[in-house]
C-alpha cells in the first residue's frame, strides 16, 4: 500500500492553474460578449468561421461593384445632361436658321445671324468633346490626329462599351450614332439645286411614297425646266417627256413626291440622288454656308438658293436631332438599368450580411445566454479568488494564535 503525499507547493500550483483557466474563460466570454460575436476565431467554430469569411468576401466584392456602378452612373448622367445641352443648342440653331429665311432680311442682317450660328456650332463641338472625371471623352471619339475627338470624319470612333459584368453599365455613350449617323435630304433621297440656276425656285425635302423604288435608286435623276407653249415645263427623264409646271404641285420622281415652289427659269435643274451619311458638324457648317452665301454679286438675295438650302438644312437638322435624342434615350435606359442594379446589389448585400450574422454573431437569445454565462463565470472566478485567499491564511501559526 502506497501513500501519496500532497505538498503545499503542489496544491498551490494546482489552485493557481485552475484559477488561471477560469480567468481565461472569463476573458474569452467578455471578449465575445463585448464584440457581440459567437465566433471570433476559426477555433471557436471552424465551419461557421469559413461561412462568415465567404460572406465577407462576397460583401467586399459587392462593395466594389457598387463603387464601379456609382462611377459609371455619374458618367452617364453627365453624358445625358450634355446631350440635353446639345439638343437645346441645336434647337436654338434651328430657330435662327428659320429666322434667316425671313424675306425682309438683307444680307447684312443675315451676316449677323451667321455669327450667332457659328458660335452655336462651336458650342456644340465643345459639348461633343467633353470628358469625364478620368479625362476620357463622354462619347468615346478617339482621334489620334487632333486634340479633340470630333470632328474626325467618322474615323477612330468607338461606340458605347458593352456591359462587362452583371452589375456594370457602359461607361460611355455612342458618339458615332449621336453625331455621325445623319443623312442628307430626307434620309432616303436628297435633292440638290443646280449650281447655275437663275430662277427663284426651291424644293422641299420630299416625301417617300414608294420606299422600294426610292431605295433602289442608284443613278441621280435631273429635273430640268424649259419654257413651253403654255408656260414652264419640266422633265424627269432627260427631256423625253415634258409636263406643265405649277408652283407648289407635287412632282413624282423615284418613288418620292417632291414639291418645287417658286418661279424657275429655262435651264434650271434639280437633282434627286440617294442620301449620303453626314455628321452633325457638316450639317451645321453647310447650313451656315447657305445663309452666308445667299447674296448675289449685286447685293440682292438669291431667294431660290436660300430657300432651297434652308429647307434642306432644316430637314437634315431634324434628322440629326433625332439621332441625338436616340442616344439620350439610350442614356436614360442605362440610368434605369443602373438603378435596378443598385437595388439588386442592396438586396444581395442584405442577404449576404444576414448569412454572415447567422454564422458568427449572437442572435437575441444567444446574446442573453452569453451574458448570463458571463455573469456566472464572473461569480465563479470571484468565489474562487476569495476562497483561495481565505485558505491561504490557514496555518499552524494561525491555529496556535
UniProtKB/TrEMBL annotation:
Keywords: Bacterial flagellum, Cell projection, Cilium, Flagellum. InterPro entries: Flagell_FlgL, Flagellin, Flagellin_N. Residues 8-142 form the Flagellin N-terminal domain. It comes from the Bacteria. It is found in: Bacterial flagellum; Secreted. Its main location: other. It holds the Pfam family Flagellin_N. Belongs to the bacterial flagellin family. NCBIfam families: flagell_flgL (TIGR02550). PANTHER family: FLAGELLAR HOOK-ASSOCIATED PROTEIN 3, FLAGELLIN. This is Flagellar hook-associated protein FlgL. It comes from Comamonas jiangduensis. The lineage of its organism: Bacteria, Pseudomonadati, Pseudomonadota, Betaproteobacteria, Burkholderiales.
Amino acid at each position: 500500500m502506497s501513500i501519496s503525499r500532497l505538498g503545499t507547493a503542489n496544491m498551490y500550483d494546482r489552485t493557481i492553474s485552475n484559477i488561471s483557466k477560469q480567468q481565461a474563460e472569463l476573458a474569452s466570454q467578455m471578449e465575445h460578449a463585448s464584440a457581440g460575436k459567437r465566433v471570433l476565431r476559426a477555433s471557436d467554430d471552424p465551419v461557421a468561421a469559413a461561412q462568415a469569411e465567404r460572406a465577407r468576401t462576397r460583401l467586399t466584392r459587392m462593395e466594389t461593384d457598387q463603387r464601379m456602378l456609382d462611377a459609371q452612373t455619374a458618367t452617364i448622367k453627365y453624358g445625358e445632361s450634355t446631350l440635353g445641352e446639345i439638343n437645346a443648342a441645336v434647337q436654338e440653331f434651328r430657330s435662327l436658321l428659320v429666322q434667316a429665311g425671313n424675306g425682309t432680311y438683307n444680307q447684312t442682317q443675315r451676316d449677323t445671324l451667321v455669327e450667332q450660328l457659328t458660335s452655336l456650332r462651336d458650342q456644340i463641338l465643345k459639348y461633343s468633346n467633353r470628358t469625364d472625371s478620368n479625362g476620357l471623352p463622354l462619347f468615346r471619339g478617339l482621334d489620334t490626329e487632333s486634340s479633340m475627338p470630333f470632328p474626325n470624319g467618322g474615323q477612330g470612333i468607338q461606340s458605347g462599351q458593352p456591359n462587362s459584368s452583371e452589375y456594370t453599365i457602359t461607361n460611355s455613350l455612342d458618339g458615332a450614332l449621336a453625331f455621325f449617323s445623319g443623312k442628307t435630304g430626307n434620309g432616303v433621297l436628297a435633292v440638290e439645286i443646280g449650281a447655275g440656276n437663275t430662277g427663284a425656285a426651291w424644293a422641299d425635302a420630299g416625301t417617300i411614297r414608294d420606299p422600294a423604288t426610292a431605295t433602289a435608286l442608284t443613278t441621280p435623276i435631273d429635273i430640268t425646266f424649259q419654257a413651253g407653249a403654255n408656260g414652264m415645263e419640266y422633265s424627269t427623264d432627260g427631256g423625253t417627256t415634258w409636263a406643265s409646271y405649277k408652283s407648289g404641285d407635287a412632282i413624282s420622281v423615284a418613288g418620292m413626291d417632291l414639291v418645287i415652289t417658286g418661279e424657275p427659269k429655262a435651264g434650271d435643274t434639280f437633282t434627286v440622288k440617294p442620301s449620303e451619311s453626314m455628321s452633325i458638324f457638316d450639317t451645321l457648317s453647310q447650313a451656315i454656308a447657305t445663309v452666308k452665301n445667299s447674296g448675289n454679286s449685286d447685293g440682292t438675295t438669291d431667294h431660290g438658293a436660300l430657300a432651297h438650302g434652308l429647307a434642306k438644312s432644316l430637314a437634315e437638322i431634324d434628322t440629326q436631332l433625332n439621332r441625338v435624342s436616340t442616344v439620350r434615350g439610350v442614356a436614360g435606359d442605362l440610368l434605369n438599368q443602373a438603378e435596378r442594379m443598385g437595388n439588386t446589389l442592396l438586396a444581395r448585400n442584405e442577404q449576404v450580411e444576414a448569412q454572415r450574422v447567422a454564422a458568427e454573431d449572437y442572435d437575441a437569445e444567444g446574446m442573453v445566454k452569453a451574458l448570463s454565462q458571463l455573469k456566472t463565470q464572473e461569480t465563479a472566478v470571484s468565489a474562487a479568488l476569495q476562497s483561495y485567499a481565505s485558505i491561504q491564511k490557514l496555518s499552524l501559526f494561525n491555529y496556535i494564535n
